[in-house]
Amino acid sequence: MHNAIVCMLLALVTAAVFWPVVGCDFVNYDDPTYFVANPRVQAGLTLGNVIWAFSTLDAHNWHPLTWLSLMVDADMFGEKAAGLHFTNLFFHAANAVLLYLLLQRLTAAKWRSAFVAALFALHPLHVESVAWVSERKDVLSAFFGLLALICYARFGQEQLKIGAQNPALNLSPSSARGSRLNYSLALIFFVCALLSKPMMVTLPFVLLLLDWWPMQRLASLTPRAVVPLLLEKAPFFLFSAISCVITFWVQKKSGAMDALANVPLEGRLDNALVSYARYLGKTFLPVNLANPYPYPNHWKFPFVFASAVLLIGLSMFAVWLGKRFRFICVGWFWFVGMLIPVIGLVQVGAQSMADRYTYLPLTGVFIIFSWGTCAILKSGKCAAPLIATMAFMILFACALQSRNQIKFWKNSGTLFRHALAVTKNNDVAYSNLGAYLSTHGQMPEAALCFEEALKINPGDPALLFNYATAYYDIGLSLLQNGQVDESIVQFRKALEIYPGFKEAHNNLGNALSEVSQTDEAMVHFQKALEIDPNYLDAQNNFGITLLQIGRLDEAASHFEKVLQIKPDNVDALNDLGVVLMQKGRLDEAVSNFRKAVAIQPNYANAYVNLGDALARNNKPEAIKNYQTALNLQPGDESTRKKLQALDAEQ
Q1: Residue 253 or 421, more confident
Q2: Can you tell me the distance from the alpha carbon of 352 to that of 133, in angstroms, rounded to the nearest whole number?
Q3: Mean pLDDT of 550-578
Q4: pLDDT, average across residues 32-42
Q5: How much is the mean pLDDT over the chain?
Q6: 3-state helix, strand, coil in the chain (%, to 5)
Q7: Of 234, 241, 109, nearest to 183 (Cα)?
Q8: Fewer CB near the terminus (10 Å): N or C of the chain?
């Protein structure tokens, strides 16, 4: 069968099995950070947003290409989840095709390569990377990583053809032009992979494994054979080292590594050993998959000991058999090596393991399985039809289980209910399910979820904040519907749970102002500003309250602070104009009102205030502004009376 047909079938089958992800919603775990509540990303590709993508520490990682890809989706699909899920699926299908092309080029073994690619495409452990918008970084980094491997394979094969004995000549003028080009492209795609997800830092080691098998560039493990190939990879290792330094700094600065303080090295080592065993178990029996897997208090010694024996035993077995069957050594250390950055020795986040971490590492296990099965077939111990039937049944079972797993990603409710059903002591799942229920008006059930989360992890700020947010959302809805007294009760509950909730302080201040409790309102505005001095809403609301009680100079200072940070803030321009007008500085007031309506032409209140400021000295323009305000707000009787009074004077 022609390669093009195999590639087309891989892409079509992948799309058919994973198509339901297009109907999934966003989830409230990381998706708000990456897209739903990220105005930068939702604004699409602009020069300012591109600069932001390369400078932000959001999401505790430095992966600018991931941010840029999400911005492109925002431009193409708007804020709909379907478009972003479609892009994830596109990259996943493309990755399956690229993996086939890589292995087929390296080994010329079409059906073994196709089987590995099909396992990669359909395995249930990969559902998380495709169905979760936030894991764009997984599918995107794998896309660039596989392109880098393909270009490196072309480079290595060309080197073998021209008989280059010294890899140091790879970049010299005497090297073949195509060889230099493929080496350069491999390096460029590798950098793009790192800029999508820093987990790809282990790719240079995969290049060395491919030199051992199947390219056979590494004849032996002597220094004479190894050193030239290491020197050839020097630029790759350099970029890996730079990425490691940047990632460590970003995660340390953003607080993502705070979990290190709670988990001693011994505990992290135990979890790493057990995680390798768990990943292997879920590879061959992919059931009870969850997001997230909670971090245990400790692993019992028998589990740790058995996992260590398994890991060490399989590694020794791979080395022993690797002399005869090199694919076993390469596949095993591909799996073990690529997981090292995320195995938990340097703990980032609260999860003990994650399905997404297996996205490319599992390829090593699939290679062993595929080539090992073929070796058994060649030995005459198993008939070819039986092998083909088994392969079909395995792929069919993977497809069915992946389809079933996708159902759990329909929304936050289905995802975290499933996580709670298959895991224990999962505080993150309780907390996120509570947040989902609270936004859907199921507050009693939400409160129970938050309380369960806090029983597991008492005092966790993230859990407390989510719990408080549930009451805050209710209070905000009540305030917007005019139920001020009821909203005050909810805001107070939110602050009892999480006193550092700046938005709750701000809106409690707003509610208290509406019932004339201005002294207490100002206390809450002040607390919000102590938490975040650049919190513009609190600055502006504090100023409005001061304006209402006649403390004009203090009010003006708050509006001016807003305008120092954001000169085009129309509310601050309008409110400062009101202060200036009350102080008799009409020309300055008019200037502020004009700026406000120039920035926001449908700002009715600013037109009214501009009319008030002009009413004494420029009645025709005042009338014009009152009329504009009435066109925007036809039911504003106060403005209508002002307009009628001026018309009578004309």
Answers
A1: 421
A2: 21
A3: 90
A4: 88
A5: 89
A6: 75, 0, 20
A7: 234
A8: C
Cβ 271 vs Cβ 350: under 8 Å: no
Q: What is the DSSP letter of 457?
A: S
CA 25 from centroid of its chain's CA atoms: 15
Q: Is the pLDDT of residue 382 over 80?
A: no
Helix (H, G, I), strand (E, B) or coil at 294: strand
Do 92 and 18 touch, CB atoms closer than 8 A?
Answer: yes
CA atoms within 13 A of residue 507's CA, in its CB half-sphere: 26
CA nearest 89: which of 36, 11, 5? 11
Q: Which is nearest to 63 in space by CA: 201, 194, 154, 204? A: 194
Place of tokens 């950098």: 191
* Angle subtended at Cα 443 by Cα 441 and Cα 447, rounded to the nearest 5 degrees: 150
Beta bridge partners of 351: 294
Q: What is the DSSP string of 572-625?
A: HHHHHHHHHHHTT-HHHHHHHHHHHHHH-TT-HHHHHHHHHHHTTT-HHHHHHH
pLDDT, residue 194, reads 97
Residue in 186, 154, 187 with CA at minimum distance from that of residue 162: 154
- Amino acid occupying residue 415: L
What is the three-state SS of 163-194? CCCCHHHHHCCCCCHHHHHHHHHHHHHHHHHH
| CA distance linking residue 241 with residue 245, whole number of Å | 6
- Tokens standing for residue 111: 């059906």
Element (H, E) at 241: helix 234-254
DSSP 8-state class, residue 485:
H
| Residue given tokens 């059931």 in the structure block | 287
Q: CA-CA distance, 505 to 538, in Å (whole number)?
A: 9
- Show the tokens assigned to 421: 């059903």
Provide the sign of the torsion angle of the four alpha carbons 246, 252, 256, 262, taken in this order.
Answer: positive
Q: What is the pTM of this model?
A: 0.81
Closest CA to 563 of 530, 546, 539: 539
Q: pLDDT tens digits for 613-642?
A: 888 777 788 888 888 888 888 887 888 887
What pLDDT does 304 receive?
94
Rg for the chain, CA atoms, rounded: 31
Instruction: Provide the 3-class DSSP secondary structure of residue 351.
Output: strand
Name which of 534, 516, 521 is nearest 491 in CA terms.
521
Give per-residue pLDDT as tens, 156-202. 998 888 764 454 444 433 355 668 899 999 999 999 999 999 999 99
Domains and CATH numbers, the chain: 3-407 (no CATH), 415-602 (1.25.40.10)
CB 368 within 8 A of CB 331: yes
Span 449-479, pLDDT tens digits: 888 888 888 877 878 888 888 888 888 888 9
